[in-house]
Specification:
By secondary structure, this protein is an all-alpha fold. Among the domains are: 119-204, no CATH class; 215-357, no CATH class. 57% of the residues lie in helices and 3% in strands. The protein has 16 helices and 2 strands. The protein has helices at residues 11-18, 22-27, 31-37, 40-56, 67-78, 84-114, 122-130, 139-151, 155-173, 197-214, 217-230, 238-242, 246-253, 263-271, 323-342, 347-357; strands at residues 285-289, 300-304. Strands 1-2 form a two-stranded antiparallel sheet. Helix 11 packs across helix 13 (246-253). It is elongated. The chain starts with 10 loop residues before the first helix and ends in a 6-residue tail after the last helix.
Length: 363
């Protein structure tokens, strides 16, 4: 792949670039606008795409990874050649023929539009074509089709199409954080009027808020494990982590762990999550373990500090007192004390953890 195109282009970039609907956006990318905006990253992406497209277009105009080509690409990536793939290829071939017919029909409709030759049935034919290809179209194009229907005095069809696109957005965003990157929908901020852009932003924002309010223990555990293993600390989850209850925190701490990670390391990594390091209230607490007592009969002491003075609004959130971190440290000490009572032979390990972290002060 690099030797065919450019030594900066790899197979993953090829697959991502030519998959629908990304390929449509890249083909219509405005280099001049990108240079004006001084967006080096997007200019580089578009530059590499043009290199690939210029080579491929000599053999196949408007190439796109779908149907057979998408499945074969997946086989190459996964090194998989199971027998049931043949059936899938056959099914995909039939589907591809339907898609090709839809593509040809859309090209004909757009030719009518550009040639000022649209007849009385144009709006209905356009609607019937594009309503079944919403997931294959670039989002700026979806807004373009909506505007055609609206300006051609077909409000009913325009409203139906708007509802279908918004339903698609909601269903896609609900699939999870992997669908929350606006750049996967719009290569750049669209020029008005685009009725779907703000709706997309609001839908993603609502989903993030819902995650913070309704995150269950299993989801929180997955979030912490991704952070523990890969350092993934997406701010999309910060509010959910900051709102974690004592009960859910306890459940997260004692979840079964994967092979290759031990509980001591897991607890340390869990407490390092940056979401715990931002302010959530003015009241600041800290927890201390009394080293002078025997661990198995110790009294666990808590020291409440005076209310912290509210800092000026210009101070960045990350430098404010770590109120939630101190709270979860206290919860952790309580959980360790309880575990010691339930399983006395964990004494050495718990002592080891507290020594490593200076009673959880140095995380």
């Amino acid at each position: 792949m690099p030797s065919t195109f450019d030594n900066t282009i790899d197979f993953d970039f090829f697959v991502k670039s030519f998959s629908s609907p990304r390929v449509d956006e890249l083909r219509g990318y405005d280099f001049d606008l990108a240079f004006k905006l001084d967006d080096e990253e997007k200019v580089e992406v578009a530059r590499k795409f043009k290199i690939m497209d210029d080579v491929i277009s000599q053999f196949y105009s408007y190439f796109e990874l779908s149907g057979w080509s998408k499945i074969i690409t997946d086989l190459l990536i996964n090194l998989d050649a199971e027998s049931d793939v043949i059936e899938e290829l056959s099914r995909s071939d039939r589907l591809t023929e339907t898609q090709l017919e839809s593509d040809r029909e859309k090209q004909g409709l757009m030719a009518e539009y550009r040639n000022l030759n649209s007849d009385q049935s144009f709006n209905q034919r356009l609607f019937d074509n594009i309503k079944d290809r919403i997931d294959r179209e670039a989002f700026p194009s979806l807004s373009f089709y909506y505007n055609i229907l609206e300006k051609n005095a077909s409000p009913d069809l325009a409203n139906q199409f708007e509802a279908l696109v918004k339903q698609y957005i909601e269903e896609r965003v609900k699939k999870g954080p992997e669908e929350w990157f606006v750049g996967d929908y719009y290569l750049r901020t669209p020029v008005t009027p685009d009725i779907f852009y703000n709706f997309l932003l609001q839908t993603i924002d609502d989903q993030k808020k819902g995650l913070a309010l309704n995150t269950d223990t299993s989801t929180l555990f997955e979030i912490f494990m991704r952070f523990c293993k890969h350092g993934n600390d997406s701010e999309d989850f910060f509010e959910a982590i900051q709102n974690i209850s004592k009960e859910n925190f306890s459940s997260v701490v004692w979840q079964p762990l994967d092979d290759g990670i031990d509980r001591i390391r897991y607890i340390q990594e869990l407490l390092k999550h940056p979401a715990f390091k931002v302010k959530i209230s003015n009241k600041v607490e800290t927890a201390k373990f009394n080293n002078e007592d025997r661990l198995d009969t110790a009294i666990w002491h808590y020291q409440e500090l005076v209310n912290a003075q509210k800092p000026p609004p210009f101070i960045h959130q990350s430098v404010i007192m770590q109120s939630k971190l101190n709270e979860v440290k206290r919860w952790t000490l309580e959980l360790l004390q309880k575990r010691l009572v339930e399983k006395p032979n964990t004494k050495a390990a718990i002592e080891h953890l507290l020594e490593l972290t200076d009673n959880l002060e140095n995380i």
